[in-house]
Write a structure and sequence with these properties.
By secondary structure, the chain is mainly beta. 11% of the residues lie in helices and 41% in strands. It has 3 domains: 85 residues, Immunoglobulin-like (Sandwich), CATH 2.60.40; 106 residues, Immunoglobulin-like, CATH 2.60.40.3710; 151 residues, Beta Barrel (L,D-transpeptidase catalytic domain-like).
């Protein structure tokens, strides 16, 4: 038994000795220096203007970052709380040459790295104006009628499909809408049906840094929100020669009217129509008074059919001079006979009330008149059938 115990102790001693010998053979890994990475990578050209400058360190922490453009201006930025990344607080922008220097501290001490990159240089910068159908730029918290149409007007022709990806329209409550391109510079947006009162519409044109075709790029980003007011709809019916005005579905006023006398005349080699075209108009603006001059629409004052006169309480509903306005001299015809050049004449009392009642974007439907249907260029966006409107998207 004593011999067995002695052998057991020797065994433990031997095992322990091997273990100690094994520990003595371990080697510690040598310290590794911190590694710096730049984004954009060193030597990159034509960098996206929207991109930020970034520095990332592995195996250490950042001590300092300098990101300087060709003028010596530093690009502002900040480090993350763990000091392992630095990100510029503004995009790199157009046409810059940057030199960046970063210092990081790691197990072997400080490490320094530098880089250069250049950003895209546009051939031309293009801006867009965000407007309503009255072609006045939108301002934050404007209120429009239920027939509001968004108009995007570009300085120069653009790639329609490229632009649409960066024109974002959102509504609360949600609604599906679409863009209709009149040409390569003008796009209109509306839903299938009139907007619901109280809808909040936000338009974001995120075009800065976006290639718009042929070396052109977007100048800036824009964002604006507008609100839809009460549902004001005026229906002018040539069968009755009355204008019925509705407020949120309730009939609030009926106004006798005299509309376009009809027919056409060739004046100076140009065919002039005297119909009030049928279709869905919207209120563009109001003037009190307004000087109405037929010469501005190609009808000379001395032509026998021309005119130049001051009119009170005039509500413009088309881009070619159709107004709902007062005209006391035609009250004999209002409700029974069409005698105007195309405008909708109403009495002074009705005109004053209507002038105070409407806002831009309110709907004016003209029914059962002669002549060609209202064209989109004249403010006839809502006269375009929805299926046709969808076909006008970036085509």
């Amino acid at each position: 038994m004593a011999l067995g115990r002695r052998r057991l102790l020797i065994g433990f001693a031997g095992a322990s000795g091997l273990a100690l010998a094994g520990c003595g053979l371990r080697k510690h890994a040598p310290p590794e220096p911190a590694t710096l990475r730049f984004d954009p990578p060193p030597g990159t050209h034509d960098v996206d203007a929207r991109a930020p400058g970034m520095v990332t360190v592995s195996g250490g922490t950042l001590r300092s970052v300098e990101w300087i453009d060709e003028t010596g201006r530093p690009l502002p930025g900040s480090s993350a709380p763990d000091h392992r990344t630095w990100t510029s607080t503004e995009p790199l922008g157009y046409g810059h040459t940057y030199t960046a220097k970063a210092v990081a501290h790691g197990e072997t001490g400080d490490v320094t790295a530098t880089t250069t990159c250049t950003t895209v240089q546009p051939r031309q910068l293009i801006d867009v104006s965000l407007r309503s159908a009255n072609l006045v730029d939108l301002t934050e918290n404007d209120t429009y009628g239920i027939g509001f149409v968004l108009v995007a007007r570009f300085d120069e022709p653009v790639d329609r499909a490229a632009v649409e990806r960066h024109l974002k329209v959102t509504a609360q409550p949600a609604v599906i809408g679409a863009w209709y391109w009149l040409d390569d510079q003008n796009a209109h947006w509306r839903p299938e049906h009139y907007h619901a009162p109280g809808t909040r519409i936000t338009i974001a044109a995120e075009l800065f840094g976006v290639a718009l075709g042929d070396g052109r790029y977007g100048l800036r980003d824009q964002r604006v929100s507008v609100t839809i007011g009460p549902a004001h709809v005026a229906i002018a019916d040539d069968n009755t020669k009355q204008i019925e005005v509705f407020d949120n579905g309730n009939l609030v006023r009926t106004m006798p009217t005299s509309m376009g006398m009809g027919g056409t005349e060739v004046v100076g080699g140009r065919a002039m129509s005297f119909w009030t075209r049928p279709g869905i108009y919207t209120v563009l603006d109001r003037k009190d008074p307004v000087i109405m001059d037929s010469a501005t629409y190609g009808l000379p004052v001395d032509s026998g059919l021309g005119y130049r006169t001051s009119i009170n309480h005039a509500v413009r509903i088309s881009h070619d001079g159709i107004f709902v306005h007062e005209l006391a001299s035609s009250m004999w015809a209002q409700g029974n006979t069409n005698v105007s050049h195309g405008c909708l004449n109403i009495s002074p009392d009705d005109a004053g009330w209507f002038y105070d009642f409407v806002i831009p974007g309110d709907v004016v439907e003209v029914r059962n008149t002669g002549g060609d249907p209202l064209d989109i260029w004249q403010n006839g966006d809502w006269s375009v059938p929805w299926s046709d409107w969808l076909r006008g998207a970036h085509t």
